[in-house]
Specification:
The complex is a heterodimer of chains A (507) and B (314).
Chain A: H1 2-16, E1 29-30, E2 35-40, H2 54-61, E3 68-70, E4 76-78, E5 81-87, E6 90-95, H3 109-120, E7 135-138, E8 143-147, H4 155-158, E9 188-194, E10 198-203, E11 216-221, H5 225-234, E12 239-241, H6 245-253, E13 257-262, E14 265-271, H7 281-290, H8 293-300, E15 305-307, H9 329-338, E16 347-353, H10 359-373, E17 376-382, H11 385-393, E18 399-405, H12 414-421, H13 435-442, H14 450-466, E19 471-482, E20 485-486, E21 503-506
Parallel strand pairs in A: 2-11, 2-12, 16-17, 16-18
Antiparallel strand pairs in A: 1-21, 3-4, 5-6, 6-8, 7-8, 9-10, 10-11, 12-19, 13-19, 14-18, 14-19, 15-19, 20-21
Chain B: H1 2-28, H2 34-42, H3 50-59, H4 66-78, H5 92-127, H6 132-146, H7 149-163, H8 176-204, H9 208-215, H10 220-248, H11 252-257, H12 263-273, H13 276-304, H14 306-313
Helix pairs in contact in B: 1-13, 2-3, 5-6, 5-8, 5-10, 5-12, 5-13, 6-8, 7-8, 8-10, 10-13, 12-13, 13-14
Classes of the chains: A alpha+beta (507), B mainly alpha (314).
Organism (chain B): Pseudonocardia alni (Amycolata alni)
Keywords (chain B): Cell membrane, Membrane, Transmembrane, Transmembrane helix, Transport
Subcellular location (chain B): Cell membrane
Chain lengths: 507, 314
C-alpha cells in the first residue's frame, strides 16, 4: 500500500518535470524535401468510411477532396468545383479542369456522380445529405447536376462535408466500401495504412493546387494525450493535436510552439422543460445565474475552454465572443424564492453526465458546488451515455451535462438548431417547444444568402438564451503543438486540410 | 501423464461453451441498443433516426430473436467465421488475428524477460538470505510488484525517450519499439517470480537432503541449481500460466500509452463503440487461451514435480 502511494507520488512528480530537449517549435527553415511524423488524436474507427466521421479524416489528411470548401467567413469556396448555380430544386456544379486522381485518371462528371451516388446510397447516409432527396447526374462535359426534393439553399456548403470526398472510379469498382489507397485527388497520396494505428502519406507531385509542405508524412493515431505530449518532447513526432492544458507548459519548455484555437463545440447543461422544476422559466434563470462560467473555464478547466455566453462561440463568424457574466447568487436565490423554493422548501435535482469527455465529470462537480451555494441540492450520476440517452430524450431526467458540436459535418447551424431545439427535433433533450423559435428556424429553409443565414443563427441563439433553454457552459478549445515543424493554420470549422500546410524545419 | 491431459481436455469443451453464452449475453444485458451505439460510434454527433436505426438493425441481424442470434454466431465461430465488425466493417477474424499477433509477441517477450531475470535473481538472492543482493532484490521486487503499469510506462518514456533520447516514445513496427513496452509488461511477473523463487529456494536449501548433499562435498552452485531452483520452477510454471492469458489479452494501459495495435487496445475500442462481434470474439479468445493454458500448466507442473506425479498416477 505504501509502495503504491509512493509510486503515485513519483508519477505526479514526473508529470511536473519538464523536458530538457532543445527543440525549435515552429521556428527554423522549412524543408519541403523533409519528412514529418505527426500524432493525431482520433483514430479511424470505421476504416476511413465516408458514411462515418472517418470521411472527414481523409479530408483533414489532405488525401480526399470535396467539391467545395469554405473560407474564413464560413462561406462556400471552390475546391474540385469552381462554380455553382441554383436552378430551382437543383444545383449545377461546374468541375475544375485538369484534375487527376492519384491513380492517374481524370476528374470527370461521371467520376463525381459515381462517388456521390455511392455515399448517398449507403444504409446510413451522412447527415450532410440525409433526408433531402439527394440525387446527382452528369450535366454536360464539365458539370454535375444535384437535385433535392425541396430547393436547398445550402447545397454548396453541404458539399464541403468531408463525408462527400470524391475518389477515383476505380475505388468503387469492387463493390462494398471504396478503396482509399491512391485514389484521392489531394496534395497527399495515401500510400499505406496500418489499421487504426498509422498511415503513410507521400506528396502528390501532380497536385492541381499548392503542393504539400512535406515530402512524406507518417501519421500515428495516439489516443492517450500524455503519450502524445511525451512523443513531442522526445522528438518522435513533430506535430500533435489535442494536448490537455496540464501538458502545455511542459511541451513549451521543451521548445514546442503551442497553438490554441476555438472548437465548434459547446458543453451545455440541459434542463428538462417538460416537467417541474425546469418548466418554470424562473428556475432555469436561477440556475443560469448561479453558475459562474468564467470560473469554470479558467479555473476548473485551467483555460482549456472559453466561457460560453451563447450556443455559438468564437469558432464561427456568427458566434458570441463576449464573455458571459459571472455568478449572481443573490439573484439566483431571489428567482428560486419567487418560484417557491426556499431554505424551508429547497430544490433538489438530479444531474446526469458521462465520462467519455473527461471535462464533464469535473464540470459537474463544480456546478454542483455553485448551485449548492444558491440553495439547490444536486445529486450527480456519471453513467453510460448510451443508457442515458433514451431517458433524456423521453424527458425522464432533470439536468444533463452534455457536449455537442454545433456544426453538423459542414459549417452551417441549421441542422443543430432544428434537431436540438425545435418542437419536433430528433434530439430535443431540453424538451423546449416555442412556435416563435420554430418559425424563426423555418426561415432558414428559404434563406440562401450566407450573411442572412448567419443573422438568423444569431437570432435563434439569442432566443435560446432569452428563454434560458439550458445553460451554455463553455466552448472547449483545440490545441496543436509543433516542434520541428512549421506552417500550421488552425481551422476552427474543421473543413480545411491540416497536414498539407505543415513543413518540417531544419536548424 | 497422457491420461491426465485427456481428462483435463474433456472439460475444456463445456467450459468454452459456457463462456460463449456469457460472452454473448453480457453485453446485451447492459440495456444498450447496439444499432444506435454503432451509429454513434461511426458518427459521434449522430442524432436518433429511427428509420436508419431500423435499417441498420435489420442489416446486422439484430432484429432476430436473441437465441437465433447466438446460434448463428456460435455456428460461425465453429466454422471459423467471426463475421464483420459493426463499426469498422472489416472481418473480425483479421482484426483479432492481427492484434493477437502483436499482443502475443509482447507477451512472449515479457514472460521470457521476466523468467530470464526473475528466476536467477531469486535463486542467487536465496544463497545468502539477508545479504546485500537479497536486500537489493527485495527492494527491487517490492517496487516491481507495487508500481502499476500506468505509472511505470510514462516514467520509462521520460527516462529513456525524453531525457536520454535512446528509444522511441511510442509506435510499432521497429525492434526499438518493443523495448519499453516489454520492460513495462515484464516488471510485475519478473518481480513476482523473483520473490517466489527466492522464498522457495531458501526453504529448499535448509532441507536435510540438501544439507547432506552439501556435506558430501557437492558444490554450492550445483546444490543451488539442482536441488533449490528445480523445485522452485514448479511454482514459476504455475505463475507463467496465470500471466499468459492476461498478457495475450493485452495490457490496455501499455498498448494505449505506447500506441501499440494489440488485442487490449482493440477490445477497449470495441467495448467503447459497442462493436459486439469484436468484443465477443476477442473475449472468447482470451478465455480459451486462459483455459488451455491452465490445463497445460497443470500437466507441466505434474511432470516437473515428483510428488505431484506420484499423486497423479495413483
Amino acid at each position: 500500500m505504501i509502495a503504491r502511494k509512493m509510486a503515485a507520488l513519483l508519477a505526479a512528480a514526473a508529470l511536473v518535470l519538464t523536458g530538457c530537449g532543445a527543440g525549435t517549435g515552429g521556428a527554423g527553415t522549412p524543408d519541403p524535401a523533409g519528412e514529418l511524423t505527426v500524432a493525431l488524436q482520433f483514430p479511424p474507427r470505421a476504416d476511413y468510411a465516408f458514411d462515418a466521421d472517418d470521411g472527414a479524416r481523409l479530408q483533414s489528411l489532405g488525401v480526399a477532396e470535396t467539391l467545395t470548401t469554405v473560407d474564413a467567413d464560413a462561406r462556400p469556396a471552390p475546391m474540385l468545383a469552381t462554380g455553382w448555380e441554383q436552378q430551382g430544386n437543383a444545383w449545377r456544379v461546374t468541375l475544375r479542369q485538369d484534375v487527376r486522381f492519384h491513380d492517374g485518371t481524370p476528374l470527370t462528371p461521371d467520376a463525381v456522380v459515381t462517388a456521390l451516388r455511392y455515399v448517398a446510397g449507403v444504409e446510413a447516409p451522412p447527415r450532410a445529405i440525409r433526408g433531402i432527396g439527394f440525387a446527382v447526374a452528369p450535366d454536360g462535359a464539365d458539370a454535375v447536376r444535384i437535385t433535392t426534393t425541396e430547393p436547398d439553399p445550402v447545397m454548396p456548403l453541404r458539399l464541403s462535408s468531408g463525408n462527400l470526398g470524391i475518389l477515383a472510379p476505380a475505388a468503387y469498382a469492387g463493390g462494398g466500401a471504396p478503396r482509399y489507397l491512391r485514389t484521392g485527388t489531394g496534395p497527399f497520396v495515401l500510400d499505406s495504412v496500418s489499421g487504426a494505428d498509422s498511415a503513410q502519406l507521400v506528396r502528390n507531385d501532380d497536385y492541381w493546387g499548392e503542393p504539400a509542405g512535406a515530402a512524406r508524412v507518417t501519421v500515428r493515431y495516439v489516443e492517450d494525450p500524455q503519450a502524445r505530449a511525451l512523443a513531442v518532447r522526445s522528438g518522435d513526432v513533430q506535430f500533435a493535436e489535442g494536448l490537455p492544458q496540464a501538458q502545455l507548459d511542459q511541451v513549451r519548455s521543451a521548445g514546442a510552439e503551442v497553438v490554441e484555437y476555438p472548437n465548434a463545440r459547446t458543453v451545455l447543461l440541459q434542463l428538462n422543460q417538460s416537467a417541474a422544476p425546469f418548466s418554470d422559466l424562473r428556475v432555469r434563470q436561477a440556475v443560469t445565474a448561479a453558475i459562474d462560467r468564467p470560473v469554470l473555464a479558467e479555473q476548473v478547466l485551467a483555460g482549456g475552454a472559453a466561457p460560453a455566453a451563447d450556443l455559438f462561440g468564437a469558432a464561427v463568424p456568427w458566434g458570441e465572443t463576449a464573455p458571459p457574466p459571472g455568478a449572481d447568487v443573490a439573484r439566483a436565490r431571489q428567482l428560486l424564492a419567487e418560484a417557491g423554493y426556499t431554505e424551508q422548501n429547497p430544490l433538489t435535482v438530479r444531474l446526469w453526465t458521462f465520462p467519455n469527455r473527461p471535462e464533464l465529470p469535473a464540470l459537474a462537480n463544480a456546478i454542483q458546488a455553485m448551485l449548492g451555494a444558491a440553495g439547490v441540492k444536486v445529486d450527480i450520476t456519471v453513467g453510460n451515455y448510451e443508457a442515458q440517452e433514451p431517458k433524456v430524450l423521453a424527458g425522464d431526467y432533470d439536468m444533463f451535462l452534455n457536449s455537442r458540436s454545433y456544426l453538423s459535418d459542414f459549417p452551417d447551424a441549421a441542422s443543430t438548431l432544428t434537431s436540438d431545439y425545435t418542437c419536433d427535433g430528433s434530439y430535443a433533450v431540453d424538451q423546449y417547444c416555442s412556435p416563435a423559435y420554430d418559425a424563426l428556424v423555418d426561415r432558414l429553409n428559404s434563406t440562401e444568402d450566407p450573411a442572412a443565414r448567419q443573422q438568423l443563427f444569431r437570432e435563434a441563439a439569442a432566443m435560446l438564451t432569452r428563454d434560458a433553454v439550458g445553460v451554455m457552459v463553455v466552448h472547449p478549445r483545440n490545441t496543436a503543438v509543433l516542434r520541428g515543424a512549421t506552417g500550421f493554420v488552425p481551422d476552427p470549422l474543421q473543413i480545411r486540410p491540416v497536414l498539407p500546410q505543415l513543413s518540417p524545419t531544419t536548424g | 501423464m497422457i491420461g491426465l491431459l485427456l481428462r483435463r481436455l474433456v472439460v475444456v469443451g463445456p467450459v468454452l461453451l459456457a463462456a460463449s453464452v456469457l460472452v454473448f449475453a453480457l453485453p446485451r444485458l447492459a440495456g444498450v441498443d447496439p444499432a444506435r451505439a454503432v451509429l454513434r460510434a461511426r458518427s459521434a454527433e449522430a442524432v436518433p433516426d429511427p428509420v436508419t436505426e431500423a435499417r441498420l438493425r435489420s442489416s446486422l441481424g439484430l432484429d432476430a430473436p436473441v437465441t437465433e442470434q447466438y446460434l448463428r454466431w456460435l455456428g460461425g465461430v465453429l466454422r471459423g467465421d467471426l463475421g464483420h465488425g459493426y463499426v469498422a466493417r472489416t472481418p473480425v477474424a483479421g482484426q483479432i488475428a492481427d492484434a493477437a499477433a502483436v499482443s502475443g509477441l509482447l507477451a512472449v517477450l515479457a514472460l521470457a524477460l521476466a523468467a530470464v531475470v526473475g528466476i536467477p535473481a531469486g535463486v542467487y538472492a536465496a544463497r545468502r538470505p539477508g545479504g546485500l543482493l537479497d536486500r537489493f532484490l527485495g527492494l527491487g521486487t517490492v517496487a516491481g510488484v507495487a508500481v502499476p503499469e500506468f505509472v511505470l510506462a510514462p516514467w520509462l518514456v521520460l527516462v529513456f525517450a525524453v531525457w536520454a533520447g535512446a528509444l522511441p516514445a511510442l509506435g510499432w513496427g521497429d525492434p526499438a519499439h518493443l523495448v519499453l513496452p516489454v520492460l513495462t509488461l515484464a516488471a510485475y511477473p519478473g518481480a513476482l517470480a523473483a520473490q517466489l523463487v527466492r522464498a522457495e529456494t531458501a526453504g529448499v536449501l535448509t532441507r536435510p537432503h540438501v544439507l547432506v548433499a552439501r556435506a558430501k562435498g557437492l558444490g554450492a552452485h550445483r546444490v543451488l541449481w539442482r536441488h533449490g531452483a528445480r523445485l522452485a520452477t514448479t511454482s514459476v510454471t504455475a505463475l507463467a500460466g496465470m500471466f499468459v492469458a492476461g498478457l495475450l489479452g493485452g495490457s490496455v494501459v501499455v498498448e494505449v500509452v505506447f500506441g501499440i495495435p494489440g488485442l487490449g487496445r482493440l477490445l477497449h475500442r470495441a467495448v467503447v463503440a459497442q462493436d459486439l462481434p469484436v468484443v465477443q470474439a476477442g473475449t472468447l479468445l482470451v478465455v480459451a487461451v486462459a483455459v488451455v493454458a491452465g490445463v497445460l500448466v497443470e500437466v507441466l507442473a505434474t511432470a516437473l514435480d515428483p510428488v505431484l506425479r506420484s499423486a497423479g498416477s495413483r
